[in-house]
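Handover notes (outgoing to incoming on-call)

Open items:
1. Protein NRT1/ PTR FAMILY 8.3: sequence verified, structure written out, both below. Nothing else pending on this one.
2. Nothing else urgent.
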Amino acid sequence: MTNDSESDSEPDSESELENYAGLKIRKLPVVGVLLLVLCERLTYYTLAGTQKIYLQNQLKKMPSTSAALNAIFNMLCSFWCLPGGLLADSIGRYKAIIAAGSVYAIGTICVGISVIYELQAALGWLFIVGSLVLIAMGSGSIRPNLANFGADQIGNASEKQRECQKTFFSLLYLSVNIGVLIAFGFLANTTTDGLAGVVPQQEGYYFAYASGAGCMILAVLIFVGFTGSYRMLPGNGLGPVRLLIRYQYYSVWNGGGSRAAMSLVGFLCLPLFYIVTLADILLSAAEKSSTEVFTDPCAAPLTEAPPRMLHGGGGGGNGDEVLSDIALVLGSMACSFLAVANVNCTWVQELKQEVNFGAKDARRTFAAIPTIIVVNIAFNLCFNSMSNAFPSQACQMDLRIGSMQLNGAFFHVADAMAVVIFTPIFEFCLYPVIARVKGSPVRFGQKIVAGLVMAAISNVAAAILEFMRKDAPFLCGDAGFSHCAPGFSEDGTEGTRMKDISAFWMFIPFVFVGIAEILVNPSMYCFAYEAAPLEVRSLLQAINFFFRGSVSNAFTALVSKLFFPNDLDKGSLDSYYFVNAALAAIGIIVHFAITHR
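Protein NRT1/ PTR FAMILY 8.3 C-alpha cells:
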C-alpha cells in the first residue's frame, strides 16, 4: 500500500502530468473503483427494483404500503450518505469504503437467507432488518465515497485533470448502468418466473438476492485487490464539519440576520421531517396487510366504469393522513428555508478566533446547497417514478413473451441501455460538436435544464400510456393474470388481469429518464466535487446524494402512501405523473432564479 505522503503528491513534470491526467497510471486504480460501482449497483437495483413486488405478493403488504416501504428503503440508503461522508472525512475514504462494503455484504446475506421459500413468512423481520438497516447503511455510506475516491485518483491540479474528472464521472455513471442492465435485464425476471430448468419459480427471489450477495462480496474483494495502486488521501478529521456547525450557530446570534435564522430552522426541520415520515410509513406498514378479494373482470364484467380515486393508497380514513401532512409541511419548510437562506451566504460571520477553515470556506460550502436542493428534488421526483410507478404500470400491461412473463422491473433495462448508449455519444460527439459551434464548452446549467425537460417528458409520456392502458381490454384466459401485479396466486388462477397493450411501450418513458440522467446526475457529481473546499469534499458529495435520494424519496414515500392506487384501474396514476412533470418545470424556473440572481 502506498503511504499517504507519497500518494498525496502531484506529478512534477509536464509529461508525468499528461499521463496522470490521461489516466495512464500504473494498474489503472480507477478500474477498481468502477468495478466496485458496477457490482454494488447490480446488487442494489436487484433488490430495489423487486422489493415492492416481494413485499406485496410474498409478505402480503398492501400495494400502496409496499410502494411506500420501497421508497423508505431508497430514502434510508441515501440518508446514510451523510454519516458515510463524515466518516470518510474523518478516517479517509479508503477505510470508509471497506467498512461500508463489509456491512453491505452482511446485509445482502441476511436478505438472501430471509427469502428462501420455506422461510419467507417466518423471516419477514430479517428481510426488513437486512434491507432497511444493513443494506441501507452500507449502500448509503459507500456511494458518495466511491465517486470522490475515483476522482482523487485523477487529481485536479490542472485543467486537463479537471476535464478528465468530468469524463470519469460520466464513466462512473456508465458503470452504474451496466450493473442496472444485469440487475433488471436478468435477475429481476428470475424473481417472479425463476430460471427455466435451473431455478424453480418459488425460489426465484432466493436465486436473485443470493446472486446479489455474491456480487457484493466479489465487489469488496476486487476493490481490496487494487489497493496497491490507489492514491489515498488521509482523513481531515471532523474539525471542518464542527466548524460549519459553529459558523451556523454563531452567525444566528452575531449579526447573521434573518437568513442565518432561516438556514438554522431549515436544518432543524430535516431530522423532524425524517422522524415523522418514518413513523408514518412504518406504522402504516405494521397495521395494514392486503386482504382484498380480487374480482376477475373476465368472469364478472363490471356494468359501469369504476370511480376514479385519487386517494387510492395507504390513507385508510383512520386519521393517519395527519402524520403525512405534518411530514410534508416539515419537508417543504426544510427545503424552502435552506434554498432561500443560502442563495446569498453573506450571513456567515467570521469567528472571533483564527481557524484553518475560514468563513470564506464556510460560505462556499453553504452556497452550494440551493443548487443541490432545487436540482435534486425537481429531477428525482420524476426519476423516482421508475422505482414504483413505471414497473407497476408495466405489470398491468401485456408482459408475455411466449410461455413466460417478464417482470415489470425488467423495463428498467431501457433506462440503463439509454445511459450506456448515449453516454459516449454525449461525451465524445454531442458535447464537443456543441462546444465547437458555440465557441465554449456545454455549461452546467445547460445540461441541468435539458435534463429536467427530459425528466418531465418521461412522466408525461407515462401518463399518456396510462390513459391508453386503461382504455385497453383485459386479457382473458388462464395466461391473463399478471405475475407481478397485486393478488397473483401460486397456482396462477387469480390475481390482477393484464391489459391488451404491450408493456414494451414502457420503454419510451424509461428511455427519456435515461437521457435525463446522463445530463443531470454526472453534472451534479462534478458540481458537488468542485464546489466543496477540500476539507469537506466528502461531506458535500454526501449532501448531494442525501437530497438526491433520501429527501426526494421521503417525499415520494408520502405521496405513494396517500395517492398511489392499490388498483391502477380505479386510481389516478396519470395525475401523479402530471404533478411530477409540473414540479420539474417549476424546478427549471427556480434554478434560473438561483443562478441568475
